[in-house]
Amino acid sequence: MSGDRAKLHLHLVSDSTGETLESIAKAGLARFEGVEAIKHFWPMVRSEGHLDRVIEEITRKPGLIIYTLVDGGVRERLEQRCTSLGLPIVSPLDPTIGALSELLGQVATRRPGRQHVMDAAYFQRVDAINYTMVHDDGAGHDDWEEADIVLAGVSRTSKTPTSIYLANRGYKTANIPIVPQSPPPGLLFGLKSPLVVGLTTAPDRLVAIRRNRLLTLGQAPDTDYVDLGGIESELAYARRLFADHDIPVIDVTRRSIEETAAAIINLVQARADRASDTKAAAIGSDPN
Fold first, then answer.
1. Whether the Cβ atoms of residue 57 and residue 26 lie closer than 8 Å to each other
2. In the chain, where are the structural domains located?
3. Taking a C-beta distance cutoff of 8 angstroms, is the pair 170, 217 a contact?
4. What does pTM read for this prediction?
C-alpha cells in the first residue's frame, strides 16, 4: 500500500447484528497507526442466497473479511469463496468458543444472535437506561437510593456520557453537578445502596472543553465559566467535598468514557467483594 495512510476495506459478515464484530474490529484497528479503514457491515446473513450477494460486493472491494456465522452451510460457502478469491478471512470467536466447549464439555449452540435474546439481563439494561435518562444533571434525587451508581463532579467532567455508557452495561446511574454556589443535597452523602463516585479533571483541560462547548452553542467563549482561576476553585471545592465524605475519585483527564466506566465498574465490584467477604466472615463466626 502506498501514500501517507494505508487504505483497508474491512468486511464484517454476521448472522446477527454485527455489534461483536464491530467491537473486535475497532479494538484491532486501534493497534495500528495511519490506517484508513473502510468498514462494510453485512448483518443478518443467514442464507446462502444472501451470502452470494454479499460476496459480489466483497469481490468489488476486496479486503479482510471478519465473520461470525453459525450455520454450517453458509459458513463453509463463505470460507470456500474467499479462499478461491485469495482473500484473507478470520473467525475471531472460534478460539474462545472452542476453549469453552472443551472446558464445559458442551457443544456450542447453533442459534444465531442468541446473545441478543430478550432475557432478564436485557430488561435490566432497558430499565437502567430509562432510570439514567430521567436522573441526569441532578434530577430525581428523591429516589437516588434506587441507583447502582451516582456520579458527582463539576460541569463538563463527562458525567452524562459516562452515565449513559454505564446504563448500557446495566447499571442504574444518576449524576449531579457540583457547584460551589449551590451545594448538593445532603442526602447525597447518606446514600446506602448506590456507590457515589467523584469525577475530576485537570483545570487547563476543563477550560478547553468548556470553551469549545460555548463556541458550539454560539456563545461568547470568554466568561466566568471558562476562567482558569474560577475553575481551579470549583475543582478544589469538589475535591474537599469528596475527601470530607470519603467518596472515591477518578481523574478523567486522560481517560476515554470507556476507561472511566471500567474504573467505576471495578470500584463497584470491589465494594461488592468486600461486602461478600464481610458477610462470609460474620456467618463463619456465628456459633449457631
1. no
2. 6-104, 120-282
3. no
4. 0.69
- 251/151 Cα distance (integer angstroms): 13
Which CATH topology does 120-282 take? Rossmann fold (3.40.50)
Q: What is the pLDDT along the chain (288 residues), one digit of tens a residue?
A: 445 567 899 999 999 888 889 899 999 999 999 899 999 999 999 999 999 999 999 999 999 999 999 888 999 999 999 999 999 999 998 998 889 888 999 887 766 655 555 567 778 888 999 999 999 999 999 999 999 999 999 999 999 999 999 999 999 999 999 999 999 999 999 999 999 999 999 999 999 999 998 988 888 877 889 999 999 999 999 999 999 999 999 999 999 999 999 999 999 999 998 888 888 787 777 766
Helix, strand or coil for residue 272? helix
Class of domain 6-104: alpha beta
Taking Cα atoms as reference points, which of 23, 114, 134 lies closest to residue 70? 114
Which three cell numbers, joined as nine digits, stand for 228?
A: 482558569
Q: Strand 149-153 vs strand 89-90: parallel, antiparallel, or unpaired?
A: unpaired
Helix (H) or strand (E) holding 89: strand 89-90
What are residue 110's phi and psi, to 5 degrees?
-110, 35
Q: Are 113 and 17 in contact (CB under 8 A)?
A: yes
Give the C-alpha separation, 104 to 201, whole Å: 45
What is the spatial distance between Cα 192 and Cα 204, in angstroms, rounded to a whole number? 35
